[in-house]
Amino acid sequence: MYFSRGRVTRQAHVDIPEGTFEEEYAREGFFGRTSHLYRSHPPVDWTDIEGDLRPTALDTAALPGLKEDWIDGRVVFLQNADCKIGLCTLKEAMPWYFRNADGDEILFIHRGEGRLESDFGPMGYERGDYLVIPRGTVYRLVPTSETAVLTIEAASEVKIPDRGIVGQHALFDPAVIEAPTPGPVPEPDRAWQLKIKRADRITTVTYPHNPITTVGWRGELTIWRLNIRDIRPMMSERYHLPPSAHITWLMDKVVVCTFLPRGLEIGDPGALKVPFYHSNIDFDEVLFYHDGSFFSREGIDQGMVTFHPQGIHHGPQPGAVKAIDGKTRTDEKAVMIDTRRPLELTDAGRAASFADYWKSWQGN
């Protein structure tokens, strides 16, 4: 059943009545039942917020405990039962191999380049790469330049979402995903350690040789490498698409989206060009800012993170509409992680947070 009451626009996100602010009130992360509320004041026009729902921004470079170690130096800043989101930096090759028995991993290379060695073979990595590593895979990273990695550990399998009516080649053709090929094993004739993580505890297995002994493999379960330059975002000149149009990876109760430079909605002067106000009803929303100019957020730089939990509104900050005036394209590269179950800031996440981020909407 559809209802329309009061002062509204004819189409969502287009020709919003003067003096009103549109809010999208939607279930299932923009996929489910939806209403649009037209308000006389922005829903972020607050003067104070006390409690757990206060929006948070943090600087991953300021996370306490960051050090050059793939296990002890990986700092988780947000987590729930379905995923753990963290950051790790490496300058030197990992001195041992690693196997995560707790979940699949998505490694987003924020900075640096090098080589990934694994059960499936070696492959290079570079800035802007997603490396999707299935649970139980033996691997190590060998940087050739200082590497900073956004890490997402998922309790469920990482998959490619169904693209529906736009077809399987939308966003990126699966043919651009790269997989490793077995190759020569580095330093095979010495003892190596393999560190296995299960239930967040480490078991160390020692081999008299390199644990990578694969000479061939076949099948459909392997490491994936996808660079964001090969992702071609969906665009509309006359309608502002919801974030769900940019999903890259899908897990149980978690999605990962990639925001990339794209054309703005210049085909209709009445079309909304900035993200619409919305209340996170069914998902927590995390944005990792990788590169570019983030017009909808002031004071945000590369390597920073914003966290907007379920139950609190958010949307463009003051100046966002003015900042986009006259522009025809966005210039931002960011990774968004949406979780159905609430995320919790870790102690490290709280320590790296900006206390007054919630005030950045004041002045709307």
Number of domains: 2
Provide the CATH topology of the largest domain: Jelly Rolls
Strand content: 35-45%
Q: Please identify which CATH superfamily of the largest domain we are dealing with.
A: Jelly Rolls
Q: What order do the SSEs take from the amino end to the carboxyl end, as H and E? A: EEEEEEEEEEEEEEEEEEEEEHEEH
- Please work out how many helical segments DSSP would assign: 2
Description:
This protein has 2 domains: 21-57 and 231-361, Sandwich (Jelly Rolls); 66-228, Jelly Rolls. The strands form 4 sheets. The protein has a 7-stranded antiparallel sheet. It has 2 helices and 23 strands. Helix content is 3%, strand content 35%. The model has no long low-confidence stretch (mean pLDDT 90). By secondary structure, the protein is an all-beta fold. Strand 16 and strand 17 form a beta hairpin.
